[in-house]
């Protein structure tokens, strides 16, 4: 496809808002899918560390 100008590229013959919103939504979903597992892993490790600290008997200082 050839466009006469950059603004013609952005408007895409009147379909621009639909096309660019689809691209934006896809980008948001991909970012979420990439970042969410890391956040869940950090939260899981933090919770497991706290659980382990609660279960350890207190250490005596000599």
Secondary structure layout:
Elements: H1 6-11, H2 16-55
Walk me through the structure.
With 62 residues, the chain is mainly α. It has 2 helices and no strands. The chain is rod-shaped, with a radius of gyration of 25 Å. The mean pLDDT is 92.
Keywords:
mainly alpha, 2 helices, 62 residues
Q: Strand-residue fraction?
A: under 5%
Strand element count? 0
Note the total helix count: 2
Average pLDDT rating: 92
Q: Tell me the helix content.
A: over 70%
Task: Summarize the structure in short.
The chain is mainly α.
